[in-house]
Specification:
single chain, about 350 residues, alpha+beta, Jelly Rolls, 2 domains, nine-stranded mixed sheet, four-stranded antiparallel sheet, 15 strands, globular
């Protein structure tokens, strides 16, 4: 019997940009880098006290953790409006209520933080330089971001300003094993003991590790990710520019596990699948057609994406399960996402609002 595969994220010094592009972006190789933003002011905010002193008055917006809110309110994400706060007020609030599920998540990085670092050189020259984005995250111990993929299909560097997070990464080709609903897995990793979590990571062919202050996690576009707050922690992400094909899928199409797999194939590798261009043309053609309603359009686009996967990735026999729409919550979520993505296709008013995804 062969020994178990190493699932620990490697810790590396940041390579020069050309090597980073070849080994980590084109090679789809996640890693934790120990020296991103070397010499920059952001590295001076290495603990909670330093952040409080430097950024305590900075305005932030808070929301309830996504899964917690959905379990209570369903897909009515308009019932989770942002609530204004400041960094200091939030840090005080979590001392009074350490179990709160309120957190600052996916907030466009405020200028006081953005001024503390320069765009990473490793992201230069990849995709549209005007398409980059930086986001801020601040949460308390015990909070988490459930296992999900980002619907903007960007490569990400996530820098840990202070605190620690448990990270789990799962490659997109393992999607069928995650029992997905739209861009979320129904596997609740936060409920698992550590040995159970490690067993799951091995089962799906993933990676895991603890991201510490001063370190940066790189995960490729289209990868599933879970982040659990082992301590109160702040992170800043740098989201890379995308090619035109991934921007089209992110901005013009619905999210689904099948569309995710197609987006993964529409990468920037020199050895990109030769047939993927014609399949993207087929997606654009289907998108331009008239459909009777939003749900029909989403299903038609998923069918094209599924046909592409069957041709380009025939070994992924389990992908057939990705387009099953059983009665109940999964079908309702898919219909809600279709109406969010294609609001002008159907004359029927949506009973859902505010379904969010990065775009």
């Amino acid at each position: 019997m062969s020994p178990p595969r190493d699932i620990d994220l490697p810790r590396l010094a940041m390579p020069e940009p050309a090597r980073f592009l070849a080994e980590h972006v084109h090679g789809a190789r996640p890693a934790i880098f120990t020296d991103l933003f070397a010499g920059e002011a952001l590295r001076g905010l290495g603990d909670e006290d330093a952040v409080r002193r430097s950024l305590g008055d900075m305005a932030i917006s808070l929301k309830e953790e996504f899964t917690t809110n959905v379990l209570r309110n369903g897909l009515r994400l308009d019932r989770n409006p942002p609530r204004p706060s400041t960094v200091a007020d939030y840090l005080d609030a979590i001392r009074r209520d350490p179990s709160t599920r309120m957190m600052c998540t996916e907030m466009v990085t405020p200028e006081p933080v953005r001024a503390l670092f320069s765009p990473p050189a490793q992201a230069a020259g990849l995709g549209d330089p005007d398409d980059t984005l930086s986001l801020l995250f601040l949460g308390n111990s015990g909070n988490f971001a459930s296992l999900h993929f980002d619907g903007d299909y960007r490569h990400v560097l996530l820098y840990q300003v202070f605190g620690e997070k448990r990270v789990v990464l799962v490659p997109p080709w393992a999607t069928a094993r995650l029992h997905p609903v739209l861009n979320f897995s129904t596997v609740q990793l936060g409920a698992l003991a550590l040995d159970e979590l490690l067993g799951f990571v091995r089962y799906v062919g993933g990676w895991t590790g603890v991201l510490r202050a001063g370190e940066a996690l790189f995960f490729p576009a289209c990868w599933w990710h879970y982040l659990g707050y082992d301590t109160t922690a702040m992170s800043v992400s740098w989201r890379f520019g995308r090619n035109a094909e991934r921007r089209f899928l992110a901005k013009r199409c619905h999210m689904s596990p099948v569309m995710l797999r197609l987006a993964d194939l529409l990468d920037d590798r020199p050895e990109q699948d030769p047939g993927i261009g014609s399949w993207f043309d087929a997606i654009r053609s289907e998108h331009a057609k008239l459909h009777p309603n939003a749900l029909a359009k989403a299903r038609a686009l998923d069918a094209v994406a599924m046909a592409a996967l069957r041709e380009l990735r025939p070994e992924e026999s389990t992908t057939a399960a990705l387009v099953e729409l059983p009665e109940g919550a999964v079908a309702a979520a898919f219909a809600a996402e279709a109406m969010r993505a294609y609001p002008n296709v159907s004359a029927f008013a949506s009973g859902f609002s505010g379904w969010e995804r990065l775009g």
